[in-house]
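I am writing to request your help with a piece of structural work I have in hand. Thank you for your consideration; the sequence and its C-alpha coordinates are set out here:
=====
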Amino acid sequence: MDSKLIIKEIQAGKLEKIYFLHGEEPYFIDEITSVIEATALEPHEKDFNQMIIYGKDAEPLSLLSELKNYPMMGNRKLVILKEAQEFKGLELLESYFEQPSDSTIFVVNYKYKTFDARKKSLKFAAQNGLVYKSEKVKDYKLNEWIESYVKSQGFGITSKACMLLAEFLGNDLGRIVNEIDKLAILLEKGTTINDIHIEENIGISKDYNIFELVKAIGVRDVPKAFNIVHYFNYNPKAGEMIVMIPNLFNFFSQLMRIHFLPNKSKESVAAALRVHPFIAGELMNAAKVYNPKKAAANIAILHEFDLKAKGVGNTGAFSQGDLLKEMIYRLLH
Protein backbone atom coordinates (compact mmCIF):
# COMPACT_ATOMS: atom_id res chain seq x y z
CA MET A 1 0.00 0.00 0.00
CA ASP A 2 1.19 3.51 -0.85
CA SER A 3 2.23 5.72 2.09
CA LYS A 4 -0.23 8.45 1.05
CA LEU A 5 -3.13 5.98 1.17
CA ILE A 6 -2.00 4.71 4.59
CA ILE A 7 -1.90 8.29 5.90
CA LYS A 8 -5.32 9.04 4.40
CA GLU A 9 -6.85 6.05 6.20
CA ILE A 10 -5.18 6.97 9.50
CA GLN A 11 -6.51 10.53 9.25
CA ALA A 12 -9.97 9.09 8.54
CA GLY A 13 -9.77 7.17 11.83
CA LYS A 14 -9.18 3.73 10.30
CA LEU A 15 -6.44 2.50 12.63
CA GLU A 16 -4.73 -0.89 12.71
CA LYS A 17 -3.61 -2.74 15.84
CA ILE A 18 -0.09 -3.08 14.41
CA TYR A 19 1.95 -0.90 12.06
CA PHE A 20 5.21 -2.61 11.12
CA LEU A 21 7.08 0.04 9.13
CA HIS A 22 10.43 -1.03 7.71
CA GLY A 23 12.75 -0.32 4.79
CA GLU A 24 15.64 1.71 3.45
CA GLU A 25 13.86 5.07 3.12
CA PRO A 26 13.38 6.59 6.61
CA TYR A 27 11.31 9.56 5.41
CA PHE A 28 8.09 7.60 4.71
CA ILE A 29 8.44 5.60 7.94
CA ASP A 30 8.81 8.77 10.02
CA GLU A 31 5.98 10.47 8.11
CA ILE A 32 3.50 7.66 8.83
CA THR A 33 4.67 7.42 12.45
CA SER A 34 4.20 11.17 12.95
CA VAL A 35 0.65 11.07 11.58
CA ILE A 36 -0.26 8.18 13.89
CA GLU A 37 1.29 10.01 16.83
CA ALA A 38 -0.66 13.17 16.00
CA THR A 39 -4.07 11.55 15.41
CA ALA A 40 -4.42 8.23 17.24
CA LEU A 41 -5.17 9.77 20.65
CA GLU A 42 -6.82 12.94 21.87
CA PRO A 43 -4.38 15.41 23.46
CA HIS A 44 -5.75 14.77 26.96
CA GLU A 45 -5.26 10.99 26.54
CA LYS A 46 -1.57 11.11 25.66
CA ASP A 47 -0.17 11.58 29.18
CA PHE A 48 -1.52 8.21 30.30
CA ASN A 49 -1.90 6.20 27.12
CA GLN A 50 0.99 7.12 24.82
CA MET A 51 4.38 5.49 25.24
CA ILE A 52 7.38 6.17 22.98
CA ILE A 53 10.25 3.71 23.44
CA TYR A 54 13.60 3.70 21.61
CA GLY A 55 15.06 0.43 20.36
CA LYS A 56 18.42 0.69 22.11
CA ASP A 57 16.68 1.28 25.47
CA ALA A 58 13.84 -1.23 25.10
CA GLU A 59 13.57 -4.38 27.22
CA PRO A 60 11.39 -7.17 25.76
CA LEU A 61 9.49 -8.07 28.92
CA SER A 62 8.83 -4.47 29.85
CA LEU A 63 7.67 -3.70 26.30
CA LEU A 64 5.35 -6.72 26.24
CA SER A 65 3.85 -5.63 29.56
CA GLU A 66 3.26 -2.14 28.18
CA LEU A 67 1.60 -3.55 25.06
CA LYS A 68 -0.76 -5.77 27.04
CA ASN A 69 -1.76 -3.24 29.71
CA TYR A 70 -5.21 -1.72 29.39
CA PRO A 71 -5.57 1.99 28.63
CA MET A 72 -6.30 4.39 31.46
CA MET A 73 -9.29 6.71 31.14
CA GLY A 74 -9.57 6.00 27.44
CA ASN A 75 -10.48 3.37 24.86
CA ARG A 76 -7.01 2.69 23.50
CA LYS A 77 -3.32 3.25 24.00
CA LEU A 78 -0.48 3.95 21.60
CA VAL A 79 2.96 2.34 21.87
CA ILE A 80 5.65 3.45 19.40
CA LEU A 81 8.93 1.58 19.14
CA LYS A 82 11.25 4.06 17.43
CA GLU A 83 14.64 3.06 15.97
CA ALA A 84 13.42 -0.54 16.17
CA GLN A 85 16.40 -1.68 14.08
CA GLU A 86 18.47 -1.22 17.26
CA PHE A 87 16.15 -3.42 19.33
CA LYS A 88 17.51 -6.93 19.79
CA GLY A 89 14.28 -8.49 21.02
CA LEU A 90 11.87 -8.21 18.10
CA GLU A 91 11.74 -11.98 17.73
CA LEU A 92 10.60 -12.21 21.35
CA LEU A 93 7.49 -10.23 20.39
CA GLU A 94 6.36 -12.93 17.95
CA SER A 95 3.58 -14.13 20.26
CA TYR A 96 2.27 -10.56 20.57
CA PHE A 97 2.21 -10.07 16.80
CA GLU A 98 0.23 -13.32 16.59
CA GLN A 99 -2.30 -12.19 19.22
CA PRO A 100 -2.18 -8.41 19.63
CA SER A 101 -4.23 -6.48 22.15
CA ASP A 102 -7.47 -5.03 20.79
CA SER A 103 -6.97 -1.84 22.78
CA THR A 104 -3.35 -1.09 21.75
CA ILE A 105 -1.92 0.46 18.60
CA PHE A 106 1.65 -0.77 18.26
CA VAL A 107 3.94 1.05 15.81
CA VAL A 108 7.30 -0.52 14.90
CA ASN A 109 9.59 2.09 13.35
CA TYR A 110 12.36 -0.03 11.76
CA LYS A 111 14.54 2.18 9.53
CA TYR A 112 17.41 2.07 7.00
CA LYS A 113 16.99 -1.62 6.14
CA THR A 114 14.32 -4.21 5.50
CA PHE A 115 13.21 -6.74 8.07
CA ASP A 116 13.59 -10.39 7.08
CA ALA A 117 10.32 -11.30 5.33
CA ARG A 118 10.80 -14.96 6.27
CA LYS A 119 10.40 -14.21 9.97
CA LYS A 120 7.11 -15.19 11.58
CA SER A 121 6.97 -11.83 13.36
CA LEU A 122 6.46 -10.04 10.06
CA LYS A 123 3.94 -12.59 8.80
CA PHE A 124 1.86 -12.32 11.98
CA ALA A 125 2.10 -8.51 11.85
CA ALA A 126 0.72 -8.58 8.29
CA GLN A 127 -2.12 -10.88 9.34
CA ASN A 128 -3.19 -8.75 12.30
CA GLY A 129 -2.17 -5.29 11.21
CA LEU A 130 -0.33 -3.47 8.45
CA VAL A 131 3.21 -4.03 7.15
CA TYR A 132 4.70 -1.25 5.05
CA LYS A 133 8.01 -1.57 3.21
CA SER A 134 9.53 1.87 2.64
CA GLU A 135 11.66 1.90 -0.49
CA LYS A 136 14.02 4.56 -1.83
CA VAL A 137 12.61 6.71 -4.60
CA LYS A 138 14.30 5.65 -7.83
CA ASP A 139 16.76 8.22 -9.19
CA TYR A 140 14.79 8.63 -12.40
CA LYS A 141 11.63 9.41 -10.36
CA LEU A 142 13.28 11.82 -7.91
CA ASN A 143 12.50 15.00 -9.89
CA GLU A 144 8.88 13.89 -10.21
CA TRP A 145 8.71 13.27 -6.45
CA ILE A 146 10.19 16.71 -5.67
CA GLU A 147 7.69 18.40 -8.01
CA SER A 148 4.83 16.52 -6.35
CA TYR A 149 5.94 17.45 -2.84
CA VAL A 150 6.46 21.11 -3.76
CA LYS A 151 2.96 21.20 -5.30
CA SER A 152 1.47 19.65 -2.16
CA GLN A 153 2.93 22.58 -0.18
CA GLY A 154 1.25 25.13 -2.44
CA PHE A 155 4.21 26.06 -4.64
CA GLY A 156 5.53 25.42 -8.14
CA ILE A 157 9.12 24.67 -9.15
CA THR A 158 11.09 25.08 -12.38
CA SER A 159 12.85 22.12 -13.98
CA LYS A 160 16.29 23.59 -13.28
CA ALA A 161 15.51 24.27 -9.61
CA CYS A 162 14.21 20.72 -9.29
CA MET A 163 17.36 19.29 -10.85
CA LEU A 164 19.58 21.43 -8.63
CA LEU A 165 17.92 20.01 -5.51
CA ALA A 166 18.14 16.45 -6.82
CA GLU A 167 21.77 16.71 -7.90
CA PHE A 168 23.02 18.57 -4.81
CA LEU A 169 21.06 16.75 -2.09
CA GLY A 170 20.94 13.33 -3.72
CA ASN A 171 18.30 10.74 -2.92
CA ASP A 172 17.83 11.96 0.66
CA LEU A 173 14.15 12.83 1.01
CA GLY A 174 14.55 14.11 4.55
CA ARG A 175 17.11 16.73 3.48
CA ILE A 176 15.09 17.66 0.38
CA VAL A 177 11.91 18.17 2.41
CA ASN A 178 13.79 20.15 5.04
CA GLU A 179 15.16 22.58 2.42
CA ILE A 180 11.80 22.93 0.67
CA ASP A 181 10.09 23.59 4.00
CA LYS A 182 12.63 26.37 4.69
CA LEU A 183 11.75 27.97 1.35
CA ALA A 184 8.04 27.63 2.17
CA ILE A 185 8.57 29.88 5.19
CA LEU A 186 10.42 32.52 3.17
CA LEU A 187 8.32 32.59 -0.01
CA GLU A 188 4.72 33.56 -0.63
CA LYS A 189 2.29 30.72 -1.33
CA GLY A 190 1.86 30.11 -5.03
CA THR A 191 5.43 31.15 -5.85
CA THR A 192 7.25 29.11 -8.48
CA ILE A 193 10.59 28.17 -6.92
CA ASN A 194 13.45 28.86 -9.34
CA ASP A 195 17.23 28.51 -9.39
CA ILE A 196 17.69 32.01 -7.92
CA HIS A 197 15.62 31.05 -4.86
CA ILE A 198 17.72 27.90 -4.51
CA GLU A 199 20.99 29.81 -4.76
CA GLU A 200 20.03 32.62 -2.39
CA ASN A 201 18.32 30.55 0.30
CA ILE A 202 19.85 27.08 0.16
CA GLY A 203 23.35 27.95 -1.00
CA ILE A 204 23.43 25.82 -4.14
CA SER A 205 25.05 27.84 -6.91
CA LYS A 206 22.93 27.98 -10.06
CA ASP A 207 26.10 28.20 -12.17
CA TYR A 208 28.63 26.11 -10.25
CA ASN A 209 27.15 22.74 -9.40
CA ILE A 210 27.35 19.12 -10.47
CA PHE A 211 24.38 19.50 -12.80
CA GLU A 212 26.09 22.34 -14.70
CA LEU A 213 29.37 20.40 -14.78
CA VAL A 214 27.68 17.40 -16.41
CA LYS A 215 26.08 19.75 -18.96
CA ALA A 216 29.47 21.35 -19.74
CA ILE A 217 31.09 17.93 -20.18
CA GLY A 218 28.16 16.85 -22.36
CA VAL A 219 28.91 19.57 -24.91
CA ARG A 220 32.68 19.41 -24.31
CA ASP A 221 32.80 23.00 -23.07
CA VAL A 222 36.32 22.75 -21.60
CA PRO A 223 36.61 26.34 -20.23
CA LYS A 224 33.24 26.15 -18.44
CA ALA A 225 33.99 22.68 -17.05
CA PHE A 226 37.28 23.85 -15.55
CA ASN A 227 35.73 27.03 -14.18
CA ILE A 228 33.31 24.81 -12.25
CA VAL A 229 36.15 22.50 -11.15
CA HIS A 230 38.07 25.55 -9.93
CA TYR A 231 35.01 26.62 -7.92
CA PHE A 232 34.71 23.13 -6.43
CA ASN A 233 38.37 23.24 -5.44
CA TYR A 234 37.63 26.23 -3.18
CA ASN A 235 34.16 25.02 -2.17
CA PRO A 236 34.60 21.25 -1.67
CA LYS A 237 31.10 20.67 -0.28
CA ALA A 238 29.57 22.03 -3.50
CA GLY A 239 31.10 19.23 -5.58
CA GLU A 240 32.21 16.17 -3.64
CA MET A 241 33.73 13.44 -5.81
CA ILE A 242 31.71 10.69 -4.11
CA VAL A 243 28.55 12.48 -5.31
CA MET A 244 29.93 13.60 -8.67
CA ILE A 245 31.24 10.25 -9.90
CA PRO A 246 27.86 8.40 -9.75
CA ASN A 247 26.25 11.28 -11.66
CA LEU A 248 28.90 11.17 -14.38
CA PHE A 249 28.78 7.37 -14.46
CA ASN A 250 25.02 7.54 -15.01
CA PHE A 251 25.52 10.16 -17.73
CA PHE A 252 28.02 8.11 -19.76
CA SER A 253 26.03 4.91 -19.18
CA GLN A 254 23.01 6.65 -20.70
CA LEU A 255 25.10 7.67 -23.71
CA MET A 256 26.18 4.05 -24.19
CA ARG A 257 22.56 2.94 -24.12
CA ILE A 258 21.60 5.56 -26.70
CA HIS A 259 24.34 4.35 -29.06
CA PHE A 260 22.90 0.84 -29.05
CA LEU A 261 19.18 1.65 -29.10
CA PRO A 262 17.56 0.41 -32.32
CA ASN A 263 15.18 3.40 -32.38
CA LYS A 264 16.93 6.72 -31.73
CA SER A 265 13.92 9.04 -31.94
CA LYS A 266 13.65 11.48 -29.02
CA GLU A 267 10.44 9.80 -27.81
CA SER A 268 12.00 6.31 -27.88
CA VAL A 269 15.16 7.50 -26.10
CA ALA A 270 13.06 9.28 -23.44
CA ALA A 271 11.00 6.12 -22.86
CA ALA A 272 14.05 3.82 -22.76
CA LEU A 273 16.00 6.02 -20.34
CA ARG A 274 12.94 7.13 -18.38
CA VAL A 275 13.76 10.81 -18.69
CA HIS A 276 11.91 13.91 -19.87
CA PRO A 277 12.02 14.36 -23.68
CA PHE A 278 13.99 17.61 -23.21
CA ILE A 279 16.67 15.71 -21.26
CA ALA A 280 16.59 12.98 -23.88
CA GLY A 281 17.38 15.60 -26.52
CA GLU A 282 20.39 16.86 -24.56
CA LEU A 283 21.65 13.30 -24.09
CA MET A 284 21.26 12.57 -27.79
CA ASN A 285 23.38 15.62 -28.60
CA ALA A 286 26.02 14.46 -26.08
CA ALA A 287 26.04 11.02 -27.73
CA LYS A 288 27.18 12.74 -30.93
CA VAL A 289 30.12 14.25 -29.01
CA TYR A 290 31.14 10.98 -27.33
CA ASN A 291 31.22 7.91 -29.56
CA PRO A 292 30.79 4.45 -27.98
CA LYS A 293 34.54 3.92 -27.63
CA LYS A 294 35.08 7.21 -25.76
CA ALA A 295 31.96 6.76 -23.62
CA ALA A 296 33.20 3.29 -22.58
CA ALA A 297 36.69 4.67 -21.89
CA ASN A 298 35.17 7.39 -19.70
CA ILE A 299 33.23 4.82 -17.67
CA ALA A 300 36.56 3.04 -17.02
CA ILE A 301 38.15 6.37 -16.01
CA LEU A 302 35.34 7.02 -13.54
CA HIS A 303 35.81 3.56 -12.01
CA GLU A 304 39.53 4.30 -11.61
CA PHE A 305 38.93 7.63 -9.90
CA ASP A 306 36.16 6.24 -7.73
CA LEU A 307 38.76 3.89 -6.22
CA LYS A 308 41.32 6.69 -5.89
CA ALA A 309 38.79 8.97 -4.18
CA LYS A 310 38.22 6.18 -1.64
CA GLY A 311 41.96 5.88 -1.02
CA VAL A 312 42.65 2.82 -3.20
CA GLY A 313 45.85 3.37 -5.16
CA ASN A 314 46.16 6.94 -3.87
CA THR A 315 49.09 7.27 -1.48
CA GLY A 316 47.88 10.66 -0.29
CA ALA A 317 50.18 12.61 -2.59
CA PHE A 318 47.13 13.90 -4.51
CA SER A 319 44.39 15.98 -2.93
CA GLN A 320 40.72 15.60 -3.89
CA GLY A 321 41.13 18.80 -5.93
CA ASP A 322 44.08 17.34 -7.86
CA LEU A 323 42.19 14.12 -8.50
CA LEU A 324 39.15 16.04 -9.70
CA LYS A 325 41.17 18.14 -12.17
CA GLU A 326 42.90 15.08 -13.61
CA MET A 327 39.65 13.13 -13.87
CA ILE A 328 37.80 15.92 -15.70
CA TYR A 329 40.77 16.51 -18.03
CA ARG A 330 40.85 12.83 -19.03
CA LEU A 331 37.07 12.68 -19.51
CA LEU A 332 37.19 15.66 -21.88
CA HIS A 333 40.26 14.68 -23.92
Notes: The chain has a mean pLDDT of 91. Strands lie at 18-23, 50-54, 77-82, 104-111, 130-134, 156-157, 192-193. The chain has 17 helices and seven strands. Residues 210 and 242 are 11 Å apart (CA to CA).
